[in-house]
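Sequence decides. Consider this:

===
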Amino acid sequence: YRSITPKARLVPLTAPFLTYLRSDGIILPPDEDDPNIDFSSTDTDSGIFSSTSTPTGSDSGSDTEPNPDPSTQWPELHQKIKATIAELGGNVIPKLNWSAPKDATFMNATNSMECQTANDIYCLLKSSDFITHDLEQVFDDCEPPSSSSSQLPNEDIIPYHLILRKAIPALVPSLEFRCFVRSRILLCMCQRDLNFYEFLPGLVPTLRPLIQKFFEERLKDTFEDENFVFDVYIPPPHKKVWLVDINPWAPRTDPLIFSWLEILEMVGPGASAHARTINGVADGDSGRKDDEDGGSSEDDNDDDEEDVFTPEFRLVNRDDPEAYSFNTPRYSAHKMPKDVVDASGGGEAGLRDCMGRWREIMREQEGEDGPDGRR
């Protein structure tokens, strides 16, 4: 799909780098290429350190050793990543084999996935729960091959790659769309940016056939799986479709404006005469009403055969709650420690218990440290 995707490069990842991603804490290599970064003033409370900073924030007279440079374990890969960023124009979007660190954009100075340095990439990857899932739980919800003796492959033998995609300049989020394919049939599509855009309904007659044609010619018979979800971007003047990503047909893929139950119950082409659809969703009452009225005629059957299936194109309407940002910001749970998120499920009592345990841990750490802050 090279000709229909934004320019990108694949960088094979080494075992030492994967160990670095899996390790606790965020220690970044010294970024000597960026004179604007002053690592001497690293905020130790953030938990992010460079190899020239110390986690205790002690003065120069302290005997605390600076953090080792983690890139010494993968120097060739470090230089390859920096060279690839320069090759792609100095502004890239990172992802691993399956996921992008969308949940960690709050760690980036731009509050987006656009990265200009290798350290930007490392910080996003190490801060992302999505990336951790790719590294540790990649086969969740997967089934082994049909053979009873077969097992899912070991995660250690997966050829992990870092995909660096050239950032699209002046990207318009309102023109990104998510499309759902079941049994190689394009069932439905919707906008990815959950905001109301007054101009979008007028573009639907242009965008829907464009996406349908793109799917029929480029993806329908070429992608290995028959069930999948793909994302596209159609910039002005709305004549070319760019393939942004392909996602698994699985609950962990966000259905956005739809629900997975709604998508699974949709009736595609070739359905029985009694199956009807309203906005792409099966309506079982329609068939029963036909039976009460004496059944369908031959003319009705002929009309059904002549019907052309049209995928639903769903947009955020002016009155939808999503249009007013009253809902919780996306990925907000990923900005908090997991213990805090779990405790919040127990209400006020759960949070109070979590705070009590936290105070006990802090008191134990203070007891282990001497009066001068050294162990």
Observations:
- The radius of gyration is 26 Å.
